[in-house]
């Protein structure tokens, strides 16, 4: 059974390039991410305030990068919130995207450390997050990149043409390619993790991007993430139960090892410098349907009936698991709930193999 039957294929592996016409972007979809929410953090001391609480270096946002992936850890170095931080068009105002079930919890967490800093922290209910992506997958089973032409197309549809020209002019003058594009309270960002995840759009809750853009409404964003091996939210990253490097935070540009101290930094740095992360989130492709409730109760087994990982979520014929890297990649077969499954080393992982893979190859 073709695990990717929900997507169409192309014969050549070149990246899909979208031109300005609407007809050429028929495969692009917009999907409201109801499971994601926003916390608004603002004030003249907002950057310094967040610097000591998050894994990434907020100074990059302060100096011009408009979106950033980061995690908030507890004192034991475990993930409590996975987030994307957006710089709004207004200086000193940031939006922190997180799982919608923990927006209030994140807000309280930040307020605990605010002390006397001049920072306001509020759950933002008047805005919502959309994902705009190209769900096609090439013959190598890797989603096709959403290139800059698609971003320009979105600007031209959501924003007036003069705003598009201004954005191009700013980039020529040295602005980051992630520079903010904003009009009528619509903010467009490239997903800071990997390009295959497309764009993130923050807009008023009343806005319907499918009508604004003239594109279809997507329903396969979670399936796309699982095919890529990207976790998101409390289901994939249970609070206080996983470490940032196991969740590929380092591979997804979500942690800085040069910024200095932050909550949970000591353990994260120690694991990074040892160079050995034995388990990571990886994609699982299923040969048959499995209910998520059953999969979460079972472990992934190799041909010797040895447990080599656990499942975090199932969407259609794709799943996400925390797997022992060297063991699953060397296994002759893998099963989950008596169903054959396959995994792979995601294409967006660094080309240089982790030390545990290097040691395996020497055996």
Automatic annotation (TrEMBL):
Q: Which InterPro entries match?
A: CAF17_C, TrmE/GcvT-like, YgfZ/GCV_T_CS, YgfZ/GcvT
Q: Where in the cell is it found?
A: Mitochondrion
Gene Ontology terms describing biological process: iron-sulfur cluster assembly
Q: What is its main location?
A: mitochondrion
The superkingdom listed in its UniProt entry is Eukaryota
Q: What's a Pfam family in this record?
A: Beta-barrel_CAF17_C
Domain CAF17 C-terminal, residue spans:
278-351
Question: Single GO cellular component annotation?
Answer: mitochondrial matrix
Q: Which UniProt keywords apply?
A: Mitochondrion, Transferase, Transit peptide
List the Gene Ontology MF annotations in alphabetical order.
transferase activity
NCBIfam families associated with the record: ygfZ_signature
Output the PANTHER family linked to this UniProt entry.
Answer: TRANSFERASE CAF17, MITOCHONDRIAL-RELATED
Protein's name according to its UniProt entry: Transferase CAF17 homolog, mitochondrial
Originating organism: Thrips palmi
Classification of source organism: Eukaryota, Metazoa, Ecdysozoa, Arthropoda, Hexapoda
């Amino acid at each position: 059974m073709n695990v990717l039957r929900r997507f169409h294929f192309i014969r050549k592996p070149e990246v899909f390039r979208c031109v300005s016409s609407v007809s050429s972007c028929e495969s692009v979809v917009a999907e409201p991410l109801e499971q994601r929410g926003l916390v608004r953090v603002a004030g003249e001391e907002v950057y310094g305030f967040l610097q000591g609480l998050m894994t990434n270096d907020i100074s990059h946002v302060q100096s011009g990068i408009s979106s950033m992936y980061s995690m908030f850890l507890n004192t034991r170095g475990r993930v409590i919130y996975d987030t994307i931080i957006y710089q709004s068009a207004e200086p000193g105002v940031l939006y922190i995207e997180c799982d919608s079930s923990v927006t209030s919890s994140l807000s309280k967490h930040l307020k605990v450390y605010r002390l006397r800093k001049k920072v306001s922290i509020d759950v933002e209910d008047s805005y919502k997050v959309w994902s705009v992506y190209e769900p096609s997958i090439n013959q190598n089973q890797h989603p096709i990149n959403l290139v800059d032409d698609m971003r320009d197309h979105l600007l031209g549809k959501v924003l007036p043409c003069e705003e598009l020209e201004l954005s191009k002019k700013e980039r020529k003058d040295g602005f980051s390619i992630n520079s903010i594009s904003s009009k009528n309270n619509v903010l467009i960002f490239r997903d800071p993790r990997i390009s295959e995840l497309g764009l993130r759009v923050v807009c008023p809750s009343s806005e319907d991007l499918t009508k604004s853009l003239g594109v279809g409404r997507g329903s396969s964003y979670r399936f796309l993430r699982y095919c890529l091996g990207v976790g998101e939210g409390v289901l994939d990253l249970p609070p206080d139960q996983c470490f940032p490097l196991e969740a590929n935070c380092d591979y997804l540009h979500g942690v800085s090892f040069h910024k200095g101290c932050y909550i949970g930094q000591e353990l994260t740095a120690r694991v990074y410098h040892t160079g050995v992360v034995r388990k990571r989130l990886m994609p699982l492709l299923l040969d048959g349907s499995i209910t998520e409730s059953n999969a979460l109760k079972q472990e992934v087994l190799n041909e010797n009936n040895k447990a080599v990982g656990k499942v975090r979520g199932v969407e259609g014929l794709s799943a996400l698991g925390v797997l022992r890297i060297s063991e699953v990649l060397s296994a002759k077969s893998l099963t989950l709930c008596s169903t054959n499954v396959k995994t792979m080393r995601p294409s967006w992982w660094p080309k240089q193999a982790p030390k545990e893979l290097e040691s395996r190859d020497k055996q």
